[in-house]
Amino acid sequence: MKQVVLEKKKSIRTRISLCLERSLLRYLSARAKKRRPRRKCGKILVVRTDGLGDYILWLSVEQKIRELYKDKRMELLFDKRKPTPQLARYDCAADSLLSVHIVTWKRFLSVLRMYRRSYDVIIQPIYSRLAFTDLLVFAAKASERVTIDSNGQFFASRAEWEWSDRGYDRILPCQKGTRHELVRCAELARGLGVKNCLASLPDMSGILLPQVPELPDGTGRSYFMVFPSASWKGKVWESEKFAAVVQWMLETFDGVVYLCGDTQDVPVCDRIVRQVRPAGRKRLSVLAGRLNLAQLARMIQKAALVFGNDTGAVHLAAAYRVKAAAVVAEREIGRFFPYETQYPQQAAAFPVCVHQQGISCSGCLLRGEPVCRYRKHVTETVRCISSIQAEDVILVLRDLFMRIQT
After folding, report:
1. Alpha helix locations (H) across 96-212?
2. Half-sphere exposure (CA, 13 Å, Cβ side) for 153?
3. pLDDT digits (tens, 9 = 90+) for 9-48
4. Angle between the 131-139 and 2-31 helix axes, to the nearest 10 degrees?
């Protein structure tokens, strides 16, 4: 009975919160074009409240856009829940970082915080915009607000989408349908005024990382890095399948295998270790929770191979031209995997995408199905990922491993 009461209270709070968010979006989007700073402040704001992988892909055009606004200070806006600022703090193109809450009741305090800020230009580059992120854009004063034409899939209604569009001074046109995020980034850059900008792999030259502390268990030996977790539970491949792949790595590869992630990923890494045969465990080490994102990025630079779920680590590996493979949900196909650039010579650095081709529910997101029709619980893996077997991945990794050796 107590649990039912708590659930009802949570439901009421959620409805009140969404109603308040909707009202603020309607009001602030209507007033956005009247909220102008009195004078030039010499600052631009780039909204990057999406995931780590999105930020990595954005680096393909960041330096070019920085040159376009070289006389202004660039500030990046992040979601406090995401680890992205741990890496972005070493981004030479950014003059400052701003982290805000975009979930829980604290997000309304973020609106007040943005209400006091002013910019010459605010750039919202996210193709699948969130209503609340747009709300933050409209709360701040700006001489110009620019975004790319959204697909509108995360707006609660057509009305919210229209309210949001009216608050922008410029909505840059882009190709409709599914295109890779690297292509979207290039479209945005050209729309802003960067000439002859083509889709390319991320440029990591502006990310100056610190040195990694001395590593235990195999320092100086070549190594594989495995990332068995992800930000969304639905796209996490099962631990027993990861264990089978790790076992194959240890039998095939004479280096060290590191299981990586943050503190929350330690339990799944420990489960994988327990499922690996004792003889191979001396070359298997858990780094989850022991290194921050910047230190992991430094390790990825020198890895022989990176493998995991669809996470930012795989995009980092591609950015550093390190061989990588990822288990990917069908909903991500076309937008995040497989990679697409307009420089054919970069294809050798593309991460390999392992996905369930031809499954009947393929293209669910394009059809407006935000929730997997076969997934009954929040913690369940989506069907298109759970149907991928360890043998399927091993075949792909064997091919990658042969390329590394040659």
Report:
1. 107-115, 131-139, 158-166, 181-192
2. 16
3. 567 888 899 999 999 999 999 999 999 999 999 999 999 9
4. 50
Cis amide linkage into residue 338, ω under 30° from 0: yes
Mean pLDDT of 168-189: 93
How many residues does this entry show for the chain? 406
Comparing CA positions, the residue from 133, 101, 80, 104 lying closest to residue 17 is: 104
In the β-sheet with 284-286, what is the strand arrangement from edge to edge? Answer: 284-286, 256-259, 223-227, 305-309, 324-327, 352-354
Confidence (pLDDT) at 210: 84
List of E strands, 279-342: 284-286, 305-309, 324-327
Cβ burial, residue 201 (10 Å; 0-12/13-18/19+): buried
| CB neighbours of residue 163 within 10 Å | 23
Going from the C-alpha of 68 to that of each of 92, 124, 148, 190, 194, the distances in angstroms are 15, 16, 17, 11, 7
Residue 278 corresponds to which tokens in the numbers above? 């004792």
Distances (CA, A) of 152 to 4, 14, 126, 158, 267: 34, 22, 11, 8, 37
Nearest to 250 by CA among 277, 228, 272: 277
Instruction: Give which of 169, 167, 171 is closest to 32, Cα–Cα.
Output: 167
Nearest CA-CA partner of 166 in 147, 153, 185 = 147
- Contact yes or no for 259/272 (Cβ under 8 A): yes
Kindly state the tokens that stand for 398: 């064997």
In the sheet that holds 43-47, the strands lie side by side as 96-100, 73-79, 43-47, 118-124, 141-148, 170-172
Residues 6+ apart with CB under 8 A from 334: 178, 179, 180
Q: Which residues contact 149 (CB under 8 A, 6 or more apart)?
A: 171, 172, 173, 174
CA distance 5 to 300: 47
